[in-house]
Specification:
Length: about 140
């Protein structure tokens, strides 16, 4: 009887350790996947920024600007189509602020799947922030 308790106890401990390792492994795996996807979102946002920057240079040569408050997402007419054509996929980006003196995008947001990438240019520094968007409740 005593030997059965020892064996049952060892089996219980083994199952418990296995469950704990499984749960921890799930969280580690999930964190690695999220970090990898966040890096992809950041790369896509930076590519979008480069395309918009090049477009802005072309528009500046024509006496125009990439930032247009009258259009949707504050983008100049045709910019969203050009960005999507260059990146070969549909994207959501919006310019939040633009420096007219330096002709530079100083704040914009880019959405990629469940990630939101925010770019800002302050104190002569580029700052990139990647946020994970998770739906908690839906009514």
């Amino acid at each position: 009887m005593n030997q059965i308790r020892k064996i049952t106890g060892k089996i219980f401990v083994g199952i418990l350790v296995g469950l704990v390792l499984l749960i921890l492994g799930h969280y580690v795996f999930d964190a690695v996947i999220k970090k990898t996807e966040a890096k992809v979102a950041l790369r896509e946002a930076k590519n979008t920024y480069i395309v918009m920057k090049n477009y802005d240079i072309n528009e500046y040569a024509k006496g125009k600007c990439v930032y247009d408050k009258s259009n949707r997402y504050n983008l100049a007419k045709g910019l969203k189509d050009d960005v999507e054509k260059m990146l070969e996929h549909e994207c959501f980006c919006t310019i939040l602020d633009y420096d007219d003196k330096e002709h530079k995008i100083t704040h914009f947001v880019y959405s990629y799947g469940k990630y939101l990438v925010e770019y800002s240019y302050t104190n002569n520094k580029d700052i990139w922030i990647v946020k994970y968007i998770d739906e908690i409740l839906r009514y």
